[in-house]
Amino acid sequence: MATQNAVSFEAQGKARTLAYTMNAQVAFEEKTGVEFSAISDFFEQAQKGKISASRLREIFWAGLLDGAPEITLREAGDLIDALGMEATFELIGQAVVRAYPTAAPAGNGAAAPQAEPPAA
Questions:
Q1: CB of 92 within 8 A of CB of 18?
Q2: Total count of domains within the chain
């Protein structure tokens, strides 16, 4: 089930959604053994030109699960090939921002929750 925070896109002639729901994040963690918050490190390395193709595919795959629970890692990779790396990174970025709408970038590139101002 896709959420209201999903990013819609078309690939291989089919409408698709990308969303980092709680279940998507847990699926990523269970598949990789890495906390979902570690994707900020992945993006920092990617900005330096160090891209792990397998990690990109895992991140993208997890985001596709709510809209396509049967999707395989291989199929996620085929979608990345169809979209291109730049578009894939853009879609992931949009979906992560929608998953954490009240978060602001922290100094290390990770998202940090914004605190409510103290009551007067």
A1: yes
A2: 1
How many other CB atoms are found less than 10 A from the CB of residue 84? 10
Q: What is the pLDDT, as a whole number, of residue 25?
A: 96
- What phi and psi values does residue 9 have, to the nearest 5 degrees? -155, 170
Residue 77 lies inside a defined structural domain of this protein: yes
pTM, two decimal places: 0.81
109 within 8 A of 40, measured Cβ to Cβ: yes
What pLDDT is stored for residue 5 in this prediction?
A: 86
What residues have CB less than 8 Å from 44, skipping those under 6 apart?
Answer: 108, 109
Tell me, yes or no, whether 1 lies in a domain.
no
Query: How far is 20 from 59, CA to CA, in rounded Å?
Result: 9
| Termini Cα distance of the chain | 41
Q: What is the per-residue pLDDT across 31-87, written as a single tens digit (0 to 9) for each?
A: 999 999 999 999 999 999 999 999 999 999 999 999 999 999 999 999 999 999 999
Closest of 19, 96, 13 to residue 64, by C-alpha = 19
Give domain status of residue 44, yes or no. Answer: yes
